Hints:
Blueprint: H1 6-19, E1 23-28, E2 37-43, E3 46-54, E4 60-68, H2 70-83, E5 88-93, E6 105-108, H3 111-120
Amino acid sequence: MARLKTEIRITALLRRAQAQGAYAAILRRGDPDAGAFWVTVRKGTALFRYAEQMGMTGAREWYQDGPFDEIELSVKINKAVDRDPDLWIVEIEDTAGRAFLDGELTKVETDAEAAARALFRDQ
């Protein structure tokens, strides 16, 4: 099955968010045809990241992690861009914390995973 170009998917994401009264913007442009993208959602002072990955069945799945502070998320983004220069970054500011994804959210980080991430963050 053919996949939509990343630029088209992101344009649709921006329109969905803006139509519902949220602020949405592209922070970084990647490859317009096949670049991966992260969606960061700002809800108050908390930032959450949504990343799309290939699942075990071959389908695309969205994963959420966070909350992050501004600096922590910036470091994650910089490291990811170093590994993948085609990465797009979209930020949404929404009081309800909606991400306006084009698929179902597959996994939300558990408290145990968040604790483990915090424990090993500096290593």
